[in-house]
Amino acid sequence: MTSELILFYTFAVILVGAAVGVVTARNPVHCALLLVLAFFTSAGLWVQLQAEFLAIVLVLVYVGAVMVLFLFVVMMLDLNLTRLRERFWSYLPIGGIVALLLVAEMGLLVWGAYARSGAMPPALAPDYSNTRALGRLIYTDYVYPFELAAVILLVAIIAAIALTLRHRKTTKYQDPAQQVKAHPKGRVRIIAMASEKRDE
Length: 200
Prior knowledge:
By secondary structure, this protein is mostly helical. It folds into three domains: 1-80, Up-down Bundle (Four Helix Bundle (Hemerythrin (Met), subunit A)), CATH 1.20.120; 90-123; 129-163. Helices cover 73% and strands 0% of the residues. Helix 1 (3-24) runs antiparallel to helix 2 (28-48) and helix 2 runs antiparallel to helix 3. The chain starts with a helix and ends in a 13-residue tail after the last helix.
């Protein structure tokens, strides 16, 4: 067993353990931190697959931005944990079946690719850039699906904002038209007051 294979199995065990911890942990902050560990471990697996660009994007985007947002939301919201745990076991059979199907599909894909080739893929050239190859594929062969995915994500963002927007009477709103009409002389009023003498 080579050192690369040992490293792969180590990362795989840590990733599976972190994923199970995300689902089973009772504290939402612990779940978010375990998800950060899962993202870092996935980035390590991407580096082993010589996809350094995807590993860097995974760390910068998901760990650096998305997970920080998740942590802020989890810590700022007053979550009722007992209510969340009430129906946990009722969803377990369906979740287990879906997880087994996903594992079976991934295993069939990996086994099928290995059975067709008969060996591991050859090593890449030293001057090979996976970032250039990925950009060429995205913006040439898959440009229309890429643009369609961007439009779908934009529609999803607008729909989420529209669905969660609530107008409250206690919220103070500003009128941009009134702000534009403001004049410097009307903003500050100088009042002349007589000075007072202190009694000694």
